[in-house]
Amino acid sequence: MKHAASVSVVLVRPLALALHGAPAALAELFAETDLTPQMLADADARISPAQLCVAWAAAIRLSGDPMLALRIADATPQGAFGIVEYVCRSAPTVRDALTQWCRYLRILDDAVEVGLVDSGAHTALRVITESEAPAPASHELCFALVARHARAMIDSDLEIHEVSFSHHASGALAARYRTFFAAPVRFGAPHTEMVFSQATLASRLVTADASLLAILRPSAEEQLGRGAVAAPLTDQVRRAIREALRDDDAQLDAIAKRLGMTGRSLQRRLKDEGAVFQTLRDEIRKGLADRYLGQGMSFAEISFLLGFSEPSAFFRAFKRWTGVTPFERKLELSGA
């Protein structure tokens, strides 16, 4: 079954950072997006495309800066986008770097598809498939980051033929963007794209590192192949439950607190994603129980590790999950 599109929290962190100096505005951003600082701190957490869309709209309104994307591009430190960025930086040429970006963007955002479109003397970095909940300023930030980093990574001047956005903007905003990109900028265009000459794409990167690229690409491919297998919050809750079981603290309110939410809010959000907290916890406990039984642990040890008050409670739960007792399952796993 095809999973729902999702976006890494890595793409929301710059927005929160931009509002860091305004606590009230930052709190409002979290409230409007139904996110929490704890969620943004989880490197593996993902959100829905709609949450990214709302986050951008809220951040621009709360900051009062229609050119927030350019400000964030200037302030974003090297390495903010993790392995996707480092694979690009290690590539030999501008074209190779953009090819890597197009391939591995799905690690950060699998709601959008980008690609390189050749047309004679020029090639466009183009948004091929837009998100179901577009966040136009996110494309502005992406292109601004491409321009900023490319200028720092090549010895020659970066020549951008044209930048186009399918969304509309004021004339004053367009003029500021033309200055930033040092190129013609169109809003309300047929495509969202950044166009380069073939000579620019052939420019060598001073950061090129074939050895590092060879190390990074297998990891990037693994992350790409892993994909998103669950709804964003459901996936976070699964991880939180696994961590909490170690401390015997995998109750609803405790998990909600870890995620910066109330128990009622967590239940509501999970229901929106078609999940139930108790079912998720049972699934995780069942999987861990099977693993521990296969490792030969005692029933008392397993009961403790899964957060049960006593072995008898674990026995009853396991029989409910599987239809057999832990003892019968242990014999089955041992081949006896």
Report a brief summary of the structure:
The chain is an alpha+beta fold and 336 residues long. The protein has helices at 13-18, 23-33, 37-41, 49-63, 68-75, 82-90, 94-108, 136-153, 171-181, 198-201, 210-226, 232-245, 252-258, 263-272, 277-294, 299-305, 311-322, 326-334; strands spanning 7-8, 46-47, 113-119, 122-129, 160-165, 185-187, 193-197. The protein folds into two domains: 66-226, no CATH class; 232-334, Homeodomain-like (Arc Repressor Mutant, subunit A, Orthogonal Bundle), CATH 1.10.10.60.
Largest sheet report: 5 strands, mixed
Low-confidence stretches: none
**What number of domains?**
2
Number of helices: 18
Q: Outline, from the CA principal axes? A: elongated
What structural category do the secondary elements indicate? alpha+beta
Mean pLDDT: 90
Helix content: 55-70%
SSE topology string:
EHHHEHHHHEEHEHEEHHHHHHHHH
- State Rg: 24 Å
Question: Looking across the biggest beta sheet, what order are the strands in?
Answer: 3-4-7-5-6
Q: Give the total of beta strands.
A: 7
The first-to-last residue Cα distance is 37 Å
Which percent range describes the beta-strand content?
Answer: 5-15%
Folded structure, characterized:
This protein has helices at 13-18, 23-33, 37-41, 49-63, 68-75, 82-90, 94-108, 136-153, 171-181, 198-201, 210-226, 232-245, 252-258, 263-272, 277-294, 299-305, 311-322, 326-334, and strands spanning 7-8, 46-47, 113-119, 122-129, 160-165, 185-187, 193-197. With 336 residues, it is α+β, with helices and mostly antiparallel strands. The chain has 2 domains: 66-226, no CATH class; 232-334, Homeodomain-like (Arc Repressor Mutant, subunit A), CATH 1.10.10. The strands form 2 sheets. A 5-stranded mixed beta sheet has the order 3-4-7-5-6. It has a two-stranded antiparallel sheet with strand order 1-2. A hairpin with a 2-residue loop joins β3 (113-119) and β4 (122-129). α6 runs antiparallel to α11 (210-226), α12 (232-245) crosses α13 and α16 packs across α17 (311-322). The mean pLDDT is 90.
